[in-house]
Specification:
13 helices; elongated; 0% strand; mainly alpha; single chain
Length: 269
C-alpha cells in the first residue's frame, strides 16, 4: 500500500495529535481570568482609595515646599504632581503582587496550572484590571491637581494618557513578577515597600532632586521612577526627546517584569 493511501487512523503520529484549539476559546479563557480579577479588585477597593486620598493630601501639604524649590521656569505643580503619582502607584506594588500570590494562598495555583490557560492568558487576565485600576488612580490625582492648583492638562494632549498607561503597565508587570516569586504575604509586603521607597527617594519623587545629595542625582537616571516622573512632565511641556526616552525606559522595564513573571506563571496543562 502506498504511504499516501493511508487513512488518518493508520497514521499514529497524526492520529495522536490533538485538534488545534480555536482562537476564540483562548480569548474567552483570558476574558474569564480578567473578569475574575476585576471582581476581586472591585470587592476590596480600600487600598486604591487610600492611596488616592493620601496622594491628594500630600500634594496639598508639600505645595509650599515645591513652590520654593522648583526649578526656575517650571511650575511647581508640574514637578510635584508627577512625583506623587509615581510614588503612590509604586506603593501599590504589593496589591499587584497579591493578585498572583493569592492563587497559592487559596490553593488554586495547581488548578490554574492544570487548566489549559497558558502563561500569556494568565498574565494578561491578571494584568488588564490592574492597569485599569492604576490608570484611574493616576487620572484622579492629575484631575485633582488641575482643579485645585491649575495643572495644565490640556498641554498633555495625547502624551499624558499614553504615559499614564505605560507607567500603570510597568507597575503592574513588576508587581506580578514579585507575586510569582515570593512565598508569603509578609515577604511580598516587605519587598514591595522597600522597592517602592528606594525608587521613590532615588528618583526625586518625594522632594526635588535639587536638594538631594549629589550621589542621588548621579544614580537617579537609572531608576524607572525618575523616567516616569520626567515623562509625565515632558507630556505637558511637549519635550518629545525626554518623553521618548521615558516611554522607552518604562516599556523596557515592563517587558523585563513580564518576562520574569512568565518564568513561573502557570503554563497550562
Amino acid at each position: 500500500m502506498r504511504p499516501d493511501a493511508l487513512t488518518r487512523e493508520d497514521r499514529p503520529d497524526q492520529a495522536a495529535m490533538p485538534p488545534r484549539e480555536p482562537r476564540t476559546a483562548r480569548y474567552l479563557r483570558t476574558w474569564a481570568i480578567t473578569r475574575h480579577t476585576a471582581v476581586l479588585l472591585a470587592r476590596d477597593p480600600g487600598i486604591v482609595i487610600t492611596y488616592a486620598v493620601m496622594s491628594a493630601v500630600l500634594l496639598v501639604v508639600l505645595r509650599p515646599v515645591y513652590s520654593r524649590l522648583s526649578a526656575p521656569g517650571t511650575p511647581a505643580i508640574l514637578q510635584e504632581t508627577p512625583g506623587m503619582a509615581v510614588m503612590f502607584t509604586l506603593l501599590a506594588l504589593d496589591m499587584a503582587g497579591q493578585v498572583m500570590l493569592s492563587e497559592r494562598t487559596w490553593h488554586t495555583w495547581d488548578r490554574l496550572r492544570a487548566s489549559r490557560a497558558g502563561a500569556l492568558a494568565v498574565l494578561t487576565g491578571k494584568a488588564l484590571p490592574l492597569v485599569g485600576v492604576f490608570f484611574i488612580q493616576l487620572v484622579v490625582l492629575f484631575a485633582f491637581a488641575a482643579a485645585t492648583f491649575g495643572l495644565n492638562l490640556a498641554g498633555g494632549s495625547w502624551r499624558l494618557p499614553v504615559m499614564g498607561l505605560c507607567w500603570a503597565a510597568c507597575v503592574t508587570a513588576c508587581g506580578l513578577a514579585l507575586g510569582v516569586w515570593v512565598g508569603t504575604q509578609g515577604q511580598l509586603a516587605a519587598i514591595a515597600d522597600i522597592v517602592a521607597m528606594v525608587i521613590t527617594c532615588l528618583s526625586g519623587c518625594l522632594v526635588p532632586l535639587s536638594i538631594l545629595p549629589r550621589w542621588v542625582k548621579t544614580i537617579a537616571p537609572y531608576s524607572p521612577g525618575y523616567w516616569a516622573s520626567h515623562g509625565f512632565q515632558a507630556s505637558v511641556t511637549g519635550d518629545m526627546e525626554v518623553y521618548g526616552k521615558a516611554i522607552a525606559v518604562v516599556l523596557g522595564v515592563t517587558v523585563v517584569g513580564l518576562a520574569i513573571a512568565a518564568v513561573r506563571a502557570p503554563h497550562g496543562g
